[in-house]
Design goal:
mainly alpha; globular; 5 helices; 156 residues
């Protein structure tokens, strides 16, 4: 029971400190890379706690997780580049529009395939329960970030 209470307390402290991380972004005067690194470190600590990773699991997990995130970001940036090409002023060919459309349509599929491939690798050292906790923790983390971003935009 005390372990569960400690996790709840840690989660509460982490969620309460998230606005501080967001505020820190403003005070860094454009040092976006440093802010991203702090946010990433915070996310990794949060995931490790939520998924209840052992130290041994953390080493294996984050080595793979970083690679997975990199591949997911590549899919996002490729899709954005294709969209940007047809958003630019001027005439565009059907081929350019088709490339942008295919990028949009395939984005979720490609990201799903990447996640599935890595989750199969995670299964070699994480339990199914931990994998489920990972998906829910990622969702909670991203939802909280979106809420903070929305709150920040309203404040400006």
């Amino acid at each position: 029971m005390s372990m569960k209470r400690n996790i709840v307390i840690l989660l509460a402290v982490m969620m309460l400190s998230l606005p501080c991380v967001a505020q820190r972004k403003d005070s860094m005067k454009g040092n976006r890379a440093e802010w991203k690194k702090e946010l990433q470190d915070f996310k990794y600590k949060y995931l490790a706690q939520e998924v209840e990773l052992t130290e041994e699991q953390q080493e294996k997990f984050f080595e793979l997780y970083v690679k997975m995130e990199s591949e997911l970001k590549t899919v996002d940036s490729d899709c954005k580049a294709a969209q940007k090409a047809v958003k630019a002023e001027g005439e565009h060919s059907d081929a350019e529009y088709e490339k942008a459309l295919n990028a949009l349509l395939n984005k979720r599929v490609m990201k799903g395939q990447i996640e599935k491939r890595y989750y199969d690798q995670f299964k070699t050292f994480l339990s199914v329960k931990q994998l489920y906790k990972l998906k829910t923790a990622e969702h909670k983390f991203n939802k909280k970030l979106m809420e903070l971003r929305k709150k920040d935009h309203k404040a400006k």
